[in-house]
Every structure is written in structure tokens, then in C-alpha cells.
Design a protein that fits this description.
about 290 residues; Alpha-Beta Plaits; 2 domains
């Protein structure tokens, strides 16, 4: 596959002994693959052992065909056919081989377009973080994983304090910039496995897998301090957040129970004066049987 100026081994299959591992880069601008992609035309060599510029992909190869994968003038990669026999490929069959390669190129491009569209559907257009649609999908997955492995998981529900007032005072453009910066701070100061989502308006939901409630409280407090101390350009007063923290399975065994527990804790944070972190306090009688 071609990416960022390099050809990288994506996959191979067959009985020959590979000299290249998946993910390994091919030498730049050399070999039959590079020539095929550069010229956008098939390259056939039925006697590769006598070719000084040949870069072997398999130990036993004597014949090789390199078919460029190109879709709408965009280079995607190269389909390579190797044989342990000399003179294995008929030059008259190259046209049919390239036609098959063109079908592969179209399929690869379609798959990429589908993946991009799916990713866009899960991303909030303003902040670039995941949206509510993605959150609803992931919370069910994380709950299922926690049940299966008898683990813990925390949910943080977060509101930017007095955000409507901020919008009214400084305008929606500045309000949007605050949302983007808050989102960026969350992403930069959390683990890769944590899931940061814009739940709606100025509200965020963060899934913190494999984390008990006491540690999640520490995570939430770290984020609260980061936002409070951040210098938001154009905003002459501190921006703060309120956070409600709920833990699986202590505060909820289902999506609805966990969401309600975190929402109730967030409400308590606001009632107690905002700019604070509050943990959910659910009892066994509050929960539905598993």
C-alpha cells in the first residue's frame, strides 16, 4: 500500500517464504513495485534473478508481476504476483491481470470512503471529538466488557459552568472557541483508552475504562483544575466546570442507571456552587437486579 510517499507491505498470502513483514517499508523509489506505481503501468519480469535492481519479496521468486492499484488517478498501492518458476507469466495475460487489479483498487477506495464517512458520523463537527452517537455505542461496549471481565469503569458527566452567560457576554464565536479548547484539554490530559465525547451543548461525557471510582475522582479533579487555571484568550474571567462521577457496578449496572447516577452527581455539583467534582452515592436498593 502507498502512503506518505512510501510503499508498505500490507498483506501477503501463498506458499513462498516472505522476506518482508507486514508493516515493513519497501526501499524508496527502487524495485519493480516502485516502477509500476511511478509509471502507472504493469511491470513483468520473468527472470528476476538476473535483474540487478530487483528487490526480492520472497526467497524462491523467479518471476514477478507488479500491477499498480490506482483509483481516479490516486495511487493506492501495488498488487504483486510472484512465482518460484522462471517464465511463469504470459505477457499476453497482463491486460487481464491489470483489469483484476483495477477491481481491487476500486474496492479498496470504496472501503476507505466508507471508513471516512463512518468516522465523520461519529465526530462532533465543532470540537473534533466524539459525539453523542458514538458515546451511546461505546458505553454499551464498555459496560459489556466490564461485566465479562468483572472489572470497573467510571463515567464522568461534565458541564461548563455558566456557559450561556459566557455566550451572551462574549458572543457565540468565542463560546465555540472555548468549547474547542476545553475538548482539546480533555483529550490531551487523558489516556488513549479513555473516550471523550461532546454529549450536547456545553455538556461532555467521558468514559474511563478499567478505573474504580476513587481514581476516577482524581481524574475528574485534575481536569477541573486544568480548566480553572487555563488562560482562555478573550475571556477575562476563569472558565470552570462541574463534574459528576459514577462508577460501574457500584452506582449502576446498566447504561441508564449509570447515566442517571452521573447526572444526579452533576446536578449536586451545580447545587453546591459549581466548579467542583461530586461522586454519585447509590445504594443497593437504588439499583435494578442484574
Amino acid at each position: 500500500m502507498y502512503d506518505d510517499g512510501y510503499l508498505t507491505v500490507a498483506h501477503y498470502r501463498g506458499k513462498l517464504t516472505s522476506r518482508l513483514s507486514p508493516g515493513e517499508r519497501l526501499p524508496e523509489s527502487v524495485g519493480l513495485c516502485a516502477r509500476a506505481l511511478a509509471n502507472a503501468a504493469p511491470v513483468l519480469d520473468n527472470r528476476v534473478r538476473s535483474n540487478e535492481g530487483y528487490v526480492p519479496g520472497f526467497e524462491e521468486t523467479h518471476s514477478e508481476v507488479c500491477l499498480p492499484l490506482i483509483s481516479f488517478s490516486e495511487p493506492l498501492g501495488v498488487l504483486v504476483l510472484d512465482s518460484a518458476k522462471a517464465d511463469a507469466f504470459d505477457p499476453e495475460e497482463i491486460h487481464a491481470m491489470q483489469a483484476a487489479a483495477d477491481v481491487c483498487a476500486t474496492a479498496i477506495q470504496n472501503a476507505r470512503h466508507f471508513e471516512r464517512a463512518r468516522n465523520l458520523a461519529n465526530v462532533d463537527g465543532l470540537t473534533g471529538i466524539y459525539n453523542r452517537r458514538y458515546f451511546e455505542q461505546r458505553i454499551l461496549e464498555e459496560l459489556e466488557r466490564s461485566v465479562r471481565y468483572k472489572g470497573s469503569m467510571a463515567l464522568l458527566m461534565i458541564d461548563i459552568d455558566h456557559f450561556k452567560k459566557l455566550n451572551d457576554e462574549f458572543g457565540h464565536l468565542l463560546g465555540d472557541e472555548v468549547l474547542r479548547q476545553v475538548s482539546s484539554i480533555f483529550e490531551q490530559h487523558l489516556r488513549k483508552l479513555d473516550v471523550v465525547c461532546r454529549y450536547g451543548g456545553e455538556e461532555f461525557a467521558i468514559l474511563v475504562p478499567e478505573t474504580p471510582g476513587n481514581r476516577a475522582m482524581g481524574v475528574a479533579e485534575k481536569l477541573r483544575r486544568m480548566i480553572e487555571g487555563w488562560n482562555f484568550p478573550g475571556v477575562p474571567r476563569p472558565v470552570t466546570i462541574s463534574v459528576g462521577v459514577a462508577e460501574f457496578p457500584t452506582d449502576g449496572r446498566s447504561r441508564d442507571e449509570l447515566m442517571k447516577a452521573a447526572d444526579d452527581a452533576l446536578y449536586q455539583a451545580k447545587q453546591q456552587g459549581r466548579n467542583r467534582v461530586v461522586a454519585a452515592h447509590r445504594t443497593a436498593s437504588d439499583l435494578q437486579p442484574a
